[in-house]
Write a sequence for this structure.
């Protein structure tokens, strides 16, 4: 349908413009050659316009090739439902275009001037698809641990729908505590403290070409994590140099003992005591002030290690009273309880003895065998007026020392033996190797062969010693979480952590301890895979120990009889290998328990039944936990 | 005048030394003349020896050579005149394939345990 108003106007023009106002009856384009009375000439054209425009928006203009001999007075279109054309050729929409319903229109148009109507031109109006659907983001609940480092990935924004175009950015309303990356990764900008704030509520948004989503609520629960009370133990390291064997790099020994950023004694203790133990360099002024290292020239050749008592009473005594030591620090200032003697808690003294290490196999003439010891209770050895390294008969007040050979063969001593000896000298732990003909606790404990453990990627034995077993964590008075059972129960344990189960028996001195361990969580226990690849680097496993406090150690040649048995023995799944072995099998995955196993070796050494059995009912590799069902008949 | 005699009993405490465990791994020992053998350190701080296959080996600090030894319940570990690795630059002794098979005979092992326990008891007065 053509617009009728144009013809009326044409009639008006006809009064004044005698010629040239013809109502076209044929194709008006054929009159373009007329020089005196020319009709308008229109071009076919294409207009592209956005969808969703408001009604009445100008979307384009009619393309005029020539207006003719008189001015164009009107335009007429055939689609007046969807479009409107003004007398100046402006084209507007009369509906809201929707690309998804109709993506183009075709309309015919002609113009009218005083001569007549133009040709009919075709206008194609293409509708451009525009983003309309915004993203939809789901609400989320997150649970994160306190004290995690700033910049930890907390999670990813849960996008229900990205809309009809890709998401280009995300936004979080709490920009003080959180940041969200353009890929939706949510990170923390602060370290959370459960004691200060237990949860956070924030709103997150996603934006695409259509705009920003509605707010999604993110609720973040902060988990309370065990925060250890650190026992800081003042520690002096005396490097004993001989005329024929000497060490000249105090920084190397400082790093090996104290530098937790490197493979050191302190790093091992941080991991294996859950940050409860730290050896701290004493205040001293030799060389680098307060690095804790004092180099002493013994002014003689290495005396060899054939006589430990002579070495203690001569060389250790001379080293601690050497002017290099006495003049560099104040021993009396370390006597915090004022009892005139330095206990193991008040001062740990480590002697790094230049030369070799006999326990590694170095020759005795220039080596010593690492040990921890004390002077007897009748010792008169004092420095700065206080007794040092004196055993009193009471662990709480006794002083100790530890000594190590500085070298293992052709390389510097590794940390395993150092951590082992400090277990004795700082915490009075016992040895759990069986040096006569069994394996003791094998590689499962640093107080046994685990002192020499190493990862497959290590270069030397003792580079990555294994953990303290549950018994030693208890014996070292670490802050542990013991579930004591005398009846049936089900308990979930966090692996390589503080959680243990103690099964009491009819004998007060005899009990069982259960723990689970984690070769992924514990760098130390990743060394178990060197002994048996089945331990891998992502295994959870349970161990059970049979403890008899009436025994003093594990030197029983592997025997586990009523009279001859270990103080702390492993209840092995396969009892034919570890403890009774005489050729030093270090660790074997067939000795430990995994999901589905039932531990039934719970008789007392006297042979009577305790009635306990323990089933490993679940391994949770996400939470790094194992659930144990204890049944008591 | 009555003289009172007082008996003072002095109790002395000593703690045992806690030595490191021996490295239970094969290591290569080098004699002064360059010959080598492979063995394991056995025992502890109080009593130790080297085990190389079925041989018991001890070190002589005087000439710095390792000698094959015999084990005697009364005399302990007694060196022979036979140096380990003598006559060959090749490594002698244990290797991964043989370490579990080659052991000192049962009598020798039993004597070593006896000597070890004896040495351990005498190592430190308690």
């Amino acid at each position: 349908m053509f617009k009728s108003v144009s013809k009326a106007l044409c009639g008006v023009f006809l009064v004044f413009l005698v010629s040239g106002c013809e109502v076209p009856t044929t194709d008006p384009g054929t009159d373009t050659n007329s020089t005196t009375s020319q009709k308008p000439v229109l071009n076919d054209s294409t207009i592209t316009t956005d969808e969703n425009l408001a009604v009445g928006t100008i979307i384009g203009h009619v393309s005029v090739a020539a207006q003719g001999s008189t001015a164009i007075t009107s335009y007429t279109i055939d689609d007046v439902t969807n479009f409107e054309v003004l007398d100046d050729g402006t084209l507007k929409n009369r509906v809201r275009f929707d690309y998804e319903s109709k993506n183009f229109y075709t309309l015919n148009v002609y113009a009218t001037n005083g001569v007549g109507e133009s040709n009919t031109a075709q206008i194609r109006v293409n509708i451009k698809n525009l983003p309309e659907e915004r993203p939809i983001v789901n609400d989320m609940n997150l649970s994160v641990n306190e004290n995690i480092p700033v910049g930890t990935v907390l999670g990813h924004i849960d996008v229900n729908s990205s809309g009809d175009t890709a998401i280009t950015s995300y936004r979080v309303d709490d920009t003080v505590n959180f940041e969200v990356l353009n890929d939706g990764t949510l990170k923390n900008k602060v370290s959370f403290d459960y004691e200060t704030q237990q949860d956070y509520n924030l709103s997150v948004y996603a934006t695409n070409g259509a705009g920003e989503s509605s707010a999604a609520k993110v609720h973040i629960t902060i988990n309370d994590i065990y925060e250890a009370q650190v026992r800081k133990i003042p520690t002096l390291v005396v490097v004993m140099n001989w005329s024929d064997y000497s060490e000249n790099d105090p920084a190397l020994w400082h790093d090996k003992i104290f530098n937790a950023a490197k493979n050191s004694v302190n790093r091992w203790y941080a991991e294996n005591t859950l940050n409860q133990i730290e050896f701290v360099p004493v205040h001293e002024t030799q060389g680098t002030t307060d690095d804790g290292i004092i180099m002493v020239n013994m002014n003689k050749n290495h005396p060899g290690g054939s006589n430990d008592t002579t070495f203690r009473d001569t060389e250790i005594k001379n080293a601690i009273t050497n002017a290099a030591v006495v003049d560099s620090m104040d021993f009396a200032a370390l006597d915090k309880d004022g009892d005139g003697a330095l206990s193991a808690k008040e001062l740990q003294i480590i002697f790094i003895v230049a030369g070799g290490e006999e326990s590694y196999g170095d020759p005795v003439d220039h080596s010593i065998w690492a040990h921890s010891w004390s002077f007897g209770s009748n010792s008169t050895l004092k420095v700065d007026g206080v007794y040092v390294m004196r055993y009193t008969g009471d662990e709480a007040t006794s002083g100790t020392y530890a000594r190590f050979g500085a070298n293992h063969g052709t390389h510097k001593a590794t940390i395993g033996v150092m951590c082992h000896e400090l277990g004795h000298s700082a915490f009075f732990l016992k040895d759990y190797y069986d040096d006569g003909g069994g394996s003791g606790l094998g590689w499962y404990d640093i107080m046994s062969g685990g002192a020499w453990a190493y990862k497959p990627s290590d270069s030397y034995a003792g580079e990555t010693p294994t953990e303290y077993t549950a018994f030693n964590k208890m014996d070292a008075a670490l802050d542990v979480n013991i579930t004591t059972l005398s009846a049936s129960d089900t308990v979930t344990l966090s692996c390589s952590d503080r959680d243990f189960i103690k099964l009491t028996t009819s004998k007060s001195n005899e009990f069982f301890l259960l723990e689970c361990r984690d070769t992924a969580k514990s760098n130390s226990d990743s060394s178990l895979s060197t002994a048996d690849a089945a331990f891998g680097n992502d295994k959870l496993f349970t161990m059970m120990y049979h403890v008899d406090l009436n025994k003093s150690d594990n030197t029983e040649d592997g025997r586990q009889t009523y009279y001859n048995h270990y103080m702390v023995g492993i209840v092995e799944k396969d009892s034919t290998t570890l403890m009774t072995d005489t050729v030093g099998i270090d660790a074997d995955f067939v000795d430990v328990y995994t999901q589905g196993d039932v531990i039934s070796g719970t008789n007392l050494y006297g042979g009577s039944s305790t009635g306990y059995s323990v089933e490993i009912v679940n391994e949770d590799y996400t939470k790094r936990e194992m659930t144990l069902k204890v049944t008591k008949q | 005048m009555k003289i009172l005699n007082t008996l003072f009993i002095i109790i002395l405490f000593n703690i045992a030394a806690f030595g490191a465990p021996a490295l239970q791994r094969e290591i290569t020992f080098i004699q002064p003349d360059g010959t080598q053998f492979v063995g394991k350190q056995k025992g502890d701080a109080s009593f130790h020896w080297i085990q190389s296959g079925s041989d018991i080996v001890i070190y002589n600090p005087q000439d710095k050579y390792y000698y094959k030894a015999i084990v005697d319940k009364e005399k302990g570990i007694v060196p022979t005149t036979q140096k380990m690795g003598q006559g060959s630059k090749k490594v002698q002794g244990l290797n991964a394939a043989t370490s579990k098979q080659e052991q000192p005979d049962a009598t020798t092992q039993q004597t070593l345990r006896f000597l070890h326990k004896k040495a351990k008891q005498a190592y430190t007065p308690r």
